[in-house]
Amino acid sequence: MPTTDPTPLQHAIAEAVLDLALGEVVSFGDIAARAGRPEAARAAGAVLAESADSLPWWRVVYADGHLPPCNPGLQAERLAEEGVELRGFRVIRSPRGRFAQL
Fold first, then answer.
1. Could you tell me whether strands 24-27 and 96-97 are parallel, antiparallel, or unpaired per DSSP bridges?
2. Residues 3-23: tens digit of each pLDDT
3. The CATH number of the domain where 76 resides is what?
4. How many domains would you assign to the chain?
5. How far is CA 94 from CA 3, 26, 39, 51, 60, in A?
6. In the structure, what pLDDT confidence band is assigned to residue 1 with cuts at 50, 70 and 90?
7. Measured between alpha carbons, how far is 53 from 62 in angstroms, rounded to an integer?
8. Would you tell me how many other CB atoms lie within 10 Å of the CB of residue 24?
């Protein structure tokens, strides 16, 4: 979150990320939709980029499962600890969320 007071959208994005369960992997667009602004995927990315470890940023990836280029090694490590299956830097399957096996 930014050091200034968050906007309503930033707050909604942060809450949507905080609501993610262990092993739940979603896309930036999914977070934006949960925050009530499905067109705001880039804003979701900006909030996560500024959050450091105050939000579980590692649970949010691109819609196709690829990890963003910022620190993919750490993200892959944290996802694997939560039971997420990866191939390289791409989510193949997760216990919950967009990549859960149907």
1. parallel
2. 578 999 999 999 999 999 999
3. 1.10.10.10
4. 1
5. 32, 9, 24, 23, 12
6. low
7. 19
8. 20
